[in-house]
């Protein structure tokens, strides 16, 4: 079986093609980037996806060296995400499915991140720390479902990095530059460490950092930002591992590229005797390969009743019925 997966929940429009044995045949994508200094505009992003969808499809087919008629199943990111983007993605999925007379399966975006991580990193039952521009969550499989054990109460970690970078006149996206500057930080500046139960909160840190911009070295602020927020994320991840009696941590999302975050996760896992896995960059961000692979796993939920399929902008992770585990 060959599955073609379409990602389109936010800034990325991606098409991945995988075979049933987990081989990635293609993972093509085109990323919408908002005008400098502005956040993502949902309608603009949707227009971007519409404009490039056929190009991305052709690129994926070319790389996979297959014809569209070789595809057996179409998977698409049904949610959670921005409604205009999800609508374009669903429409494209239906259009392709009708062209080749094949069924469609809707996939949960967050679960797709976890499933591609399990496939690529060869781990079995991890707690996932998912840190990106759009999400900050700790997810794990428990009692028959994927559940969110911790998350941000306000902005995401990616948001915090990008907003602080903008305030400090650093280039977008902020994460890589902040990481570089943090290496030269020497003084720890006290920031509010906000862990509430299993959740984290970042807005207080952002406000304080912006206030401290004038009278502190940017290197020290970046260093303190990373040390504080990453410690918070590692703390809730560790607690999830302990409570759930798991022994693997999977780090993914755009922020997973950060070497200091990786190091802190690694130390925590080593001290507990747990395995630590970082999803490689190509698959850590939003992409079609995630969706295609999860589509293969969820193939029992596929349908040809196209008129009944709806987007799910607020689809909760624990609302997904998981029959493949
Ligand atoms: P995503 O939403 O998964 O595409 O991830 C985008 C986010 O990852 C943005 O907020 C970036 O600032 C952040 N990011 C990218 N590279 C790094 C890095 N090296 N360290 C920290 N954050 C990063
Ligand atoms: Mg994502």
List low-pLDDT spans: none
From the alpha-carbon coordinates, what is the Rg to the nearest angstrom? 20 Å
Mean pLDDT: 97
CATH topology group of the largest domain: Nucleotidyltransferase, domain 5
CATH class descriptor name of the largest domain: Alpha Beta
Task: Compile the SSE list and pairings.
Blueprint (H helix, E strand, L loop, with lengths): L1 E6 L4 E8 L4 E8 L10 H23 L8 E7 L3 H18 L3 E5 H13 L5 E5 L4 E7 L2 E7 L5 H11 L6 H9 L12 E2 L2 E2 L2 H10 L5 H27 L3 E5 L6 H14 L2 E4 L2 H4 L3 H10 L28
Parallel strand pairs: 1-4, 4-5, 6-11, 11-12
Antiparallel strand pairs: 1-2, 2-3, 6-7, 7-8, 9-10
Helix pairs in contact: 1-2, 3-10, 4-5, 4-6, 5-7, 7-8
The structure holds adenosine monophosphate and magnesium ion.
Describe this structure in words.
With about 325 residues, the chain is of the alpha/beta class. Helix content is about 45%, strand content about 20%. It folds into two domains: about 1-115 and about 285-320, Nucleotidyltransferase, domain 5, CATH 3.30.420.40; about 125-280, Nucleotidyltransferase, domain 5, CATH 3.30.420. The protein is built from ten helices and twelve strands. The strands form three sheets. The protein has a five-stranded mixed β-sheet with strand order 3-2-1-4-5, with helices on both faces. A five-stranded mixed β-sheet has the order 8-7-6-11-12, with helices on both faces. α3 (about 110-120) packs across α10. The protein is globular and about 65 Å long. The chain starts with a strand and ends in a 28-residue tail after the last helix. The site of magnesium ion has 6 residues, from α3.
